[in-house]
# Entry
Amino acid sequence: MAVGQYAIWFHAPEELTMGLVQKIFYFHLPLAWWSFVAFFGVCAASVMVLWTGREQWDVLAGVLAEIGVLFSGLALVTGSLWGRAAWNTWWTWDPRLSTTLVMWFVYAGYLVLRSADVGGTKGAKVRAVLGIVAFLDVPLVFLSARLWRSIHPAVLASRGGGLEPEMWTAVWINVLAWGAMFGTLVLARYHGAGLKRRVEAALIGIQEKTLQ
# Structure
């Protein structure tokens, strides 16, 4: 992350039109991309729940959904800040922005349903189906700027994406940096979920012995 900050503020040149405000891009893009990775992981883990029935996959799907909602929420915030400078408005119902907001609400709702333990004993399968269905909006977000008339820039639409080589260097360094952050958060939350299950199992065992 430190190298990424150096690349943003010292290596990458200022964009001629927007100046320093454009540097929000180096936060916004990695957050958006890694949220897509997280939601793809939710879908993949949900498929594994239906295939194997193992609890670990259900836990992983929940962890990835949490990180995905966090990252996509931050992407919306940084995009709003950037939009205020670029379009003179905090929000516009552009196809890319609208589908991203829908995606955020869908996965936030998925987390609410997980916390409510919907489905009882078959809850893992119910959550898995929801995790798979929720992913349908993710490709739509990615393609929205190309399918409909959108003012949101499509970074990979043209060769080079309109960026100088130094800018691309800063982009990929920060993509890797946020990827490291993403992996760290996923491992930490997954480990914490495992400890929680062990504590709950131990408490149940203590209660059973007390009743006996």
